[in-house]
Fold this protein.
Amino acid sequence: MSRCIHGVMTTSDDSYLLPESSSNSPYQTRLPVTTSRSCFRRFYESMLRCCRNVFKRKRSLHSRTLRLGYGPISGSHSNFVPNKVSNQKYNVFTFIPLVLFQQFKFFLNLYFLLMACTQFIPAIQIGAPITYWGPLGFVLTITLIREFFDDFARFLRDREMNGEKYEKLTRDGFITIKSCQIQVGDLIMIHKDRRIPADVVLLRTTEKQGACFIRTDQLDGETDWKLRIAVPYTQNLTSDLELMNINCEVYAEKPQKDIHAFVGTFKVTNDDNTIHDCSLNVENVLWANTVLASGHAIGVVVYTGRETRSVMNTTLPDSKVGLLDMEVNNLTKILFLFVMVLSAVMVLMKGLDNNWYKYLIRFVLLFSYIIPISLRVNLDMAKLFYAWIVGRDKHIPNTVVRSSTITEEMGRIAYLLSDKTGTLTRNEMRFKKIHLGTVAFSTDSFSDVTKHVESAYKGTLGRHSFSVKLQTAVETIALCHNVTPIYENGSVSYQAASPDEVALVEWTEVIGVRLAERDLTSMTLQLKSGETRTFQILYLFPFTSESKRMGIIIKDQTTDEIAFLMKGADTVMSKIVQYNDWLDEECSNMAREGLRTLVVAKKSLTPEQLAEFESQYHQAKMSLTNRNENMAEVVKKLETDLQLICLTGVEDRLQDEVTQSLELLRNAGIKVWMLTGDKLETAICIAKSSGLFSRTDNVHVFGQVQTRTEAHNELNALRRKSDVALVMTGASLNVCLQYYEAEVAELVCGCVAVVCCRCSPEQKAQIVNLLKKYKSPQRIAAIGDGGNDVSMIQAAHAGIGIDANEGKQASLAADFSITQFKYVCRLLLVHGRFCYKRSCALSQFVMHRGLIISTMQAIFSCVFYFASVSLFQGFLMVAYSTVYTMLPVFSLVVDQDLTAANALAYPELYKELRKGRSLSYKTFCIWVIISLYQGSVIMYGALILFDSDFIHIVSISFTALIFTELIMVGLTIHTWHWAMFVAQALSIFLYIMSLLFMNNFFDPEFVQSIVFLTKSAVITAVSCLPLYFIKLLRRTFSPPSYAKVN
């Protein structure tokens, strides 16, 4: 034996940016050219940039003042960042160091690196270094390849954007420059449908009245076009070249994130030293990465590169770690502890001497295969495969997996928090009702409205007649909005910030008052008779989520009447309009019908009142600090004593198959909560019509609370009820959370369904965090379609965005993007199930693969007097987990325990997944026992059946080990796939070739003998047949639920 032991023991780089002068330009620019440099020079500059990035202080942001044609006054170009897009994580010199640093931050990878490094120390070396460096190198190579291709793709995208050509206005005319050469103060021409390369103050446009539209879907996710206005002074110049000859200064505030605000001034000093100045706001600015949708424009660049609004709002979301990953990590820690304990036991059994620590390290090295180094890579590759499968599913078209690291989370969702508008409903508005206080008109009586309006416009009725009142209501609705008609190819479409506004304008067109034209300063209405009426737009106050209303001051060019029109939510408008006794009641009635309500009001202004307002408003607009607050305060003075004109109701239809989907989710044990900013009555109506509240549910409306005592009483009232559907407002929730956070979580989670109305975006995220805090480790998913849902989506364990009418902001911020709510069922019940079950099987099998070979090693060492000698040498150890078993084990990612149709037909099966029984301490212990049994059978069988040569032990035990692994994969599979057959056949073929031609490890004559085949087959049968019979008995007498369904 000693002779045998003795025999074993002897056995992206961005360095191309260079300064270069242009012969066609009077100034210096930075041109991206590639020149030959010495390697030392390139290495030195790259390292210098890296050091600057590491040690530099955070760049301070400054306001700037620019002079047209001369650039910045407040500093040179070097004070501002270059207009370079750079999304790369690495360059040529930092790629390998940074990737390795990211990998070795993880304890297990660092552990394996240290184990591999010990092989350079002769005293503790175990076999060939390739045994330890091979698996580690394989894992790191896969990671390096993946990171390289990801970063190279980013480099190509950056190069494309930086190389886009734009026209710059100089004193000699226009010259062509690249996007990355644009500097603060440059005058840039932008053509229709082109990306805007930097933040630009709009000076001139080819569109009438100096207005143009931009598309902002890549900035804020909203699909509607935004109106932008050129500076009036420069718009009125006769040619573009005159911009170079005026004495003009443009002031811009310091860079900030808010894309809805901008403070600046435009000041021109004329030849007679008179000064013309005007304020600049967000309507005068074109943000970078938006697209010019109409005409051509010229603007002056005020922010570039990292100081643009687009880049400043680009933040890396917090990395989400799946529950499965955390469970696997915990099991890996147990395995590490097991390695240390087993190594210590082996040293104690061997006996302590002066070299005990060397033997301890050697045993740690021998048993290091218990911790599967390939597990992380296998799971990462599996997650990428899952994302590919989901994206190719024809039953959920256009689904995108943006975060492949948490696909298994979809199989364990306990709570689904959903937005209402655009998620459960279509966000396609239809005008359904108008109420004037005494009379209401709905869809079936709109023809009567048309008749009343036609008779009123004939001018034969008194001003107090009902027809005139109805005409006033229709005309006010047709004027009080921010809608613009767009004519293309003979057809008209409406661009607006909200589908509600489009629905209102489309309704007035049906009635006979059509919005024919609109520009910056006027609006034209066309009546059914063909007559047109033009109104001058004096001031426009757009809708904001804070104000919840919008207003406009118009002047009738026929009568010179000046009017302030306003519409908004009933909660704010009820405090603005004159006293009435019907608004609150009718708002509630419409809400119970599931309609979205808007209150429309009007106020006539005298020329004196308008002049006073204009003076105060202009003064507020010119202020450089708190400009928006000052302007809002001036407008607020107008918002008093408005005449209530009418109340409108718009219907938002339910999404397709919402009722069936919610029923399916309920049967799957997933609690669905609806979080909406809408009114309480509307929310209840939608909850009932969608099926969120079933007919048998007892609906409990949580009372309005403002104090701790009221919150205490309401919570006690809720506690006395059971199996209720809860409805509460965001304001009441805030009060309750302030004093009774834990009690709220307990009681609310006990309800069968929950609706939270009047809920702000921050409150939506707060509710997600509440569940994460008190219901851990249960998984929370959130689904929405609008920008107000982003915070909720990002806070959830799994965020789902709907790519719909309201925009792409939620879709882009989400982990998963779908196009309709009904697809969430297949995403959770089918793909969530498959991903979770497959990853569980893959994880445990990879652990089993390491445990079984380590069990054999432990027995081998014990038999040979606790010798710290490796059983399998060199290539065999490396090939065991790569060449021979990797493909069959990885083929588990295409396994499925039941069909997709059955997963949807029996949603109750989903409940079992949340219990985590597919990967638990119980299943882990079962696999440990299996590994110990099989490892013992194989090792003792080989020792008992071998004749005299040690190489026969290796041949028999390793062959039995490989075939045991392949058979175990087959026993684990539920549904065979052609890829599984290929993987098994290829692995068997490769191993047979190894037996025949790898003479260093196998005796060719022996492995071709009947004795070898018989002994290997017997050992393999003894290790696998008992497990097969146990599995057969279990499926016969106590089958799992999915087996019963199949």
